[in-house]
Amino acid sequence: MSMIHNLRAAVRPSRPSRLSLRKDGGVYDATRPAEAPTAVVDCGVYRDGARVAFERSLTPHEAIRQVRRDGGFVWIGLHEPSEAEFSDIAAEFGLHPLAVEDAVHAHQRPKLERYDDTLFTVFKTIHYVEHDELTATSEVVESGEVMCFTGRDFFITVRHGGQGSLRALRHRLQDDPELLAKGPSAVLHAIADHVVDGYVAVADAVQDDIDEVETEVFSPGRKGTPRGTDAGRIYQLKREVMEFKRAVLPLVRPMQLLSERPMRLIDPDIQKYFRDVADHLARVQEQVVGFDELLNSILQANLAQASVAQNEDMRKITSWAAIIAVPTMVCGVYGMNFDYMPETQWKYGYPVVLGVTVALCLGIHRTLKRNGWL
């Protein structure tokens, strides 16, 4: 089937830019069009794999009435809707109140839940934040959320966060009518694949940051000894990896369910390709868990190097204190107020005592240096 052969190409493009050109040459924000007075970013009716053209934009209520009268499905995209904006849509489509509450308030774990004849799926989108140099306050990853309601004749997406626009993905799917003819489950797969592909790209970028930090920690410094790096940078990178981990790990089980368990709302031809998404997600999961463990090791190594450096400094300080103790003792003895002091009347007494003091200091210095304390 040609649709199956083209499935990967349809949903795996290069990452789109948030700013896009309008037909008149201007620029619009892909997060939400300037002309949209509400949270509805787009609302389209799809029949036989093609978007149905209307003389004017349809409201969600008009769109679902068209679908239930003439067939097809409606895809509604929303960006950070309020309770009031989403309540009418939820009532029209019969969405469960618990799922509606999660979709409006966001900050949910990735999950898959079934409410009657609706699947509710939560994805966390991850975007890599470019930076010239990693610091103790650098933001490495930025997260957002995409909630998906999949029904028999509708698909609703609710996005939170400035990243993860689905406008370009919608356009690419519209260019593949055979894929869209499979219904809402094809859109759900495309979004899952799009999100996991984003994870793969972010994992590669984070790997570069970890390699850079690891090189700095174990690269030789002066006299061939390792030089540590700022522990704050390592800890910040670990915190960012933890945010990445919270997006990836909880999604593993939902992808397994979508790829293995038969579901009425998921087309069998589409379900096969959820296995590929689950495969890529498992690879990212291994990478992220490995990142966390590697950063733990790097942080421990950095702290150990700092302790070794402190011990080196203390040994040097102690060595010089031991050397200085000899002339201090001699001068202390000869500084006491006694009538009879040894060698005070001998004309060679001063140079002899001074020479003995210098010889003792040199002997101690040589011994300490031979033992690696200096």
Can you summarize this structure?
With about 375 residues, the chain is of the alpha+beta class. The protein contains 12 helices and 9 strands.
Report the helical percentage.
40-55%
Largest sheet: 7 strands, mixed
Q: How is the largest sheet built, in terms of strand order?
A: 4-3-5-9-8-7-6
State which percent range the strand residues make up: 5-15%
**Strand/helix succession:** HHEEEEHEHHEEEEHHHHHHH
Per DSSP E runs of 2 or more residues, the count of β-strands stands at 9
Number of helices: 12
Q: How far is the first residue's CA from the last residue's CA?
A: 76 Å
Radius of gyration, in angstroms, nearest whole number: 34 Å
Give the class from helix and strand content and strand pairing. alpha+beta
Instruction: Using the alpha-carbon principal axes, give the shape.
Output: rod-shaped
Poorly predicted ranges: 1-5, 7-37, 222-226
Fold and architecture overview:
The chain contains twelve helices and nine strands. With 374 residues, it is of the alpha+beta class. α4 packs antiparallel against α5, α8 runs antiparallel to α9 (231-248) and α8 (184-218) packs parallel to α11. β8 and β9 form a beta hairpin. The strands form two sheets. It has a seven-stranded mixed sheet with strand order 4-3-5-9-8-7-6, sandwiched between helices. A two-stranded antiparallel ribbon has the order 1-2. The protein is rod-shaped and about 125 Å long. The protein has helices at residues 2-5, 7-11, 60-70, 83-93, 97-105, 167-174, 177-180, 184-218, 231-248, 252-260, 268-334, 349-370; strands at 19-21, 27-29, 40-47, 50-51, 73-79, 111-115, 118-128, 141-150, 154-160.
